Amino acid sequence: MNTIAASSFFEPQVIADPFDYYRAWLPKSPVVQLSETMFLVLSYDLCAQATGDVETFSNNFQGALSGAMAEDGDVAAILAEGWPQVDTLLTADPPTHTRFRKLVNLAFSMKRVAAIEEDMRGVVIELIEKMAAAHESGAEVDFVRDFGIPLPVAMIASQIGMTGDDLDKVKRWSDAFVDRLGRMIPKERELECAREVVEFQHFVKAKIDERRANRTDDLLSDLVYAEVDGERPLEDAEILSIMQQLMVAGNETTTSALAGGLLQLIENPDQMAKAVAAADTGNERAIINLVEEVLRTESPTAGMWRIVLKDAELGGVNIPKGAMVQLRYAAANRDPAKYPDPDRFDIERANARSHLAFGKGIHMCVGNMLSRKEMAVAYTELLKRLTDFRVADGHVPSWPPNMLLRGLTTLPISFRRRA
Ligand code: HEM
């Protein structure tokens, strides 16, 4: 196990299945130097510490990333047909970040999440019924394709006034954003992704214009009309940047959590039995803890970049100004110093909620309430209605390589309706 080379981290097979790497490196070096200017932070405490020091560890990494992997001229030409990328939330530092985050927090309130809960339950039940009908007719059911993807897509799409046929577009666009972010794609895909970004921008710009003419009751309208402390409203490019981030950050991550969590339950029948009992008795606290344990163990946002603004020291390792640091939340969430027996999936784990799956500090996930709610409603309704979940015969779950995100792309399953 200890023979895994530090520098092997970004090799596709290690990125796809990084747990041996974490187990090998976390105990001996919570900060791993991958090259002169690239570092990984693996421990819980140091990841948490870095998120709290925004003057040293900056989120303004977009420029550095594109500098390291220079934008191809053909890609740039396609992107020029849309709006410029603006640093608003994930890739902005204070004071810019503070201002945008205030506006988005207002649009993304608990009140809005609560307001859509009943619609959400309706979507969940409809998806379950469709899966059950497909299964009964002998068709293959893929939990990722048939449930994990459509649920978050439907919830975010409803917030920009999209329905029906449009939903496929949302998935296409969010895949393109994620692929661009993960950067492990060939040139052809880069070009395709750039075209998707531009198509998305023109689509949402039309929706923005509709709302300027006629206010509606959704998140996009909230953003179009947002004004805080008498500041100017958001510009088109800013709204587009925010919407893009909501899609990147919100879709694939929630899909991965939903599917990864179901797989954990299937692989751990004792935990499945406890989860079913919680769903049957309406034990919301137990379901909430299940959701937290899924987030801890799955950590769909496995890592996030920081760029180092001044010479720094972290966990005894010197990190020079200008270096790229990846906070590896997935490793931190399995740090044995924080979580005894960290690889065990235990839905009653007392400190499950302390995980860093949503990050920490000023950039902590703005959509955390929404995705937590989606997961809780999904598991409750799935376990109440279906039983005897199994991974389809012959299928071996696998995770495609992506530098930041980790999730199943397919999970064929079988099950039965409950009597
Ligand atoms: C299980 C699902 C999700 C996970 C695991 C996740 C994870 C994360 C993490 C780790 C961060 C912090 C990144 C950093 O440290 O720099 C983050 C930020 C963010 N997330 Fe999520 N997220 C999820 C769902 C969502 C949803 C549903 C939305 C919105 C629809 C969303 C929107 C965002 C945005 C906009 C940011 C940037 C916030 C900022 O920089 O202030 N996420 N997310």
Description:
This protein is an alpha+beta fold and 419 residues long. It has a domain at 6-254 and 302-344: Cytochrome p450, CATH 1.10.630. The chain has 18 helices and 10 strands. The strands form 3 sheets. It has a 5-stranded mixed beta sheet. Strands 4-10-9 form a 3-stranded antiparallel beta sheet. Helix 11 (166-182) crosses helix 12, helix 14 runs parallel beside helix 18 (368-385) and helix 15 packs across helix 18. The longest helix has 32 residues, at 236-267. It starts with 11 loop residues before the first helix and ends with a strand. Residues 51, 59, 89-90, 101, 156, 245-246, 249-250, 253-254, 257, 300-301, 304, 329, 357-359, 363, 365-367, 370-371 line the site of protoporphyrin IX containing FE.
Distance between the termini: 47 Å
Given as residue ranges, the uncertain stretches (5+ residues, pLDDT < 50) are none
Identify every distinct bound molecule in the structure, by name, code or SMILES: protoporphyrin IX containing FE
Please provide the count of β strands: 10
Per DSSP, the total helix count is: 18
What CATH architecture of the domain at 6-254 and 302-344 would you give? Orthogonal Bundle
Strand percentage:
5-15%
Give the integer mean of the pLDDT values: 92
Q: CATH homologous superfamily of the domain at 6-254 and 302-344, by name?
A: Cytochrome P450
Spatial order of strands in the largest sheet: 1-2-8-5-3
Radius of gyration: 21 Å
Write down the overall geometry.
globular
Name of the top-level CATH class of the domain at 6-254 and 302-344: Mainly Alpha
Helix fraction? 40-55%
| Biggest pleated-sheet summary | 5 strands, mixed
Kindly name the structural category: alpha+beta
CATH topology of the domain at 6-254 and 302-344: Cytochrome p450
